[in-house]
Structures are given as C-alpha cells and as structure tokens.
Specification:
alpha+beta; 17% helix; 3 helices
Length: 141
C-alpha cells in the first residue's frame, strides 16, 4: 500500500515512535499489525502487541491513575469520533510540566510532524481537552 500523495515526506504518530525506538534505540520493528518481535506498524497494534509491558491496559475508559507513568512510556489514544474505543494515536509521555500537568509528545497531521505544541489539541493527559478525553492506555518499552 502506497501512502497518499499529500503524506509523502510526513511522519505519522506510529512512524515517529518507530523512528525513535527502532532506528535510534535499536528496538526491532516489523511491517505488520500482528504479533511479532519488535514494534508493529500502527498505534493500535503497538498498544496490543508491542514489546515491553502494558502499564495501563485498554479498558475503553479514560485512565485515572496517571501516577504509574514514567517519562518515555508510550501513551495511546482513541480520538476518532465514530470509533471511541479504537486506538488510533500514540505519543510518548514526557512527565509533569512546570504546572504539574501530564504532558506527552507525538507526531500529528495538523502540525505535519512531531510536536509538543498544542495545535489540534493540548498535549495533556489530564484535564478535559481533546487528547486527555481520548487517552486510553500506556506501555513501557
């Protein structure tokens, strides 16, 4: 499957994680969305089959205990309006900001690449904003 013409040169959220953890950190990657050694291709598959351990399981509800998170943990979101429990976005947890808010970093199409900026929604796991409402699971590699 070829990417859409408008996506040439872009890095989506799961591709960004694969670049960081695979290319830079040496974790193997594979090109399917099934079980296997290393990081699968899509966010939902990384959440379900990725290496490491699930520290916040996907329960179709927003997690309430964010105290288990450590910087570098992968955080997963269900943000498609008509699929409220389908994991379709991944970022990595950065820790608490200077206001004590739980921040994450990800690659987003609205920003056309990796960003901690708040374009298309605040990069927060707590509160009532877009991404906080869609937060569903976390995995530690």
């Amino acid at each position: 499957v070829q990417p859409e013409q408008a996506r040439y040169g872009c890095v989506d959220c799961s591709g960004f994680q694969r670049l960081v953890w695979g290319y830079r950190m040496g974790i193997p990657v594979h090109n399917t969305n099934t079980k296997g050694v290393g990081l699968p291709r899509r966010a939902y598959a990384i959440a379900a089959y990725g290496p490491g351990r699930l520290i916040i399981p996907q329960t179709d509800k927003r997690p309430t205990d964010l105290g288990v998170l450590q910087p570098g943990d992968l955080v997963f979101f269900a943000i498609i309006k008509d699929r409220p429990n389908f994991i379709d976005h991944v970022g990595f947890y950065m820790g608490l900001d200077d206001q004590g808010r739980h921040r994450f970093y990800s690659s987003r199409s609205a920003a056309n690449g990796p960003t901690l900026g708040d374009l298309s929604g605040h990069a927060l796991l707590d509160g009532t904003d877009f991404y906080a409402r869609g937060f569903r699971a976390a995995r530690r590699l």
